[in-house]
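Course assignment 3, question 2. Fill in each field.
Student: A.L.
Task: Predict the tertiary structure for the chain below.
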Amino acid sequence: MRLRRLLAVAAVCSLANVAHAAPDAGVAAGEDPSPAIDADPGAGLHLITSSALTQPRGAVTITSHMGLTGATYGLTDRLELGGYVLPVFLFSDDTYVGGVFTAKLAVVNHGPIRAAIEVRTGALSQRWTDLWYAEASAIATACIDRACASELTAAGTIGARAVTGSLDDGGGERELETRLAIGAQVRLADHVKLVADVAWAREAERGGSASSGVLLAPGVRIHGASWMVLASAAIAPMSGDILPWVSAAYRL
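Answer field:
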């Protein structure tokens, strides 16, 4: 699977993972860390997958990541909503325009193991074709430290896509996708974290044909209490393609 196709889909499908807040590293002894205790507005910013952490109630975070620009809002401490637009996204000679809406519910948001369910729906337009999709993910996050500043995340996703438009450019295609992803972030210093993801995806087209691929995404995030900058790269091992990227987020 080519890097540009994986990343075009990832831009729309996973950019809602930009601003899932993490609890503060300085949690007092005896307290149970809560997503409402926030020290990093981009703590859930993995390039491919999302953590089970959610933003605190009332928090609004503006993000720019892989071409997508938008905001995430914490409706409650357990439920966050997000909306993003993709004004222009370039890969070689292809131009993409799109957007995504997300909703994420934290089923377990305290303790060393967190769990969440996330749904995403959106569209991606390229030349004379449109890609429409909907997907749902089950997410589990294991906190390495008490504050969950360092964590390991595993996510399973199933989704459906439909391509409309010119038949010469893929119009009429229907696909089912399954995706397994593992992500980690490790706190190196008070304001520095190492982030790494790996994902395997399989697409089954109507008619029986199928394809699969692997994507790696390492990065380093520098953050303050209300801002963050993430320098990362998407790597497709099978093709050897590498795409560097810089993302940013700011909490109002």
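Instructor remarks: The chain has one domain: 3-251. Confidence is low (pLDDT under 50) at residues 1-9, 11-37.
Grade: pending
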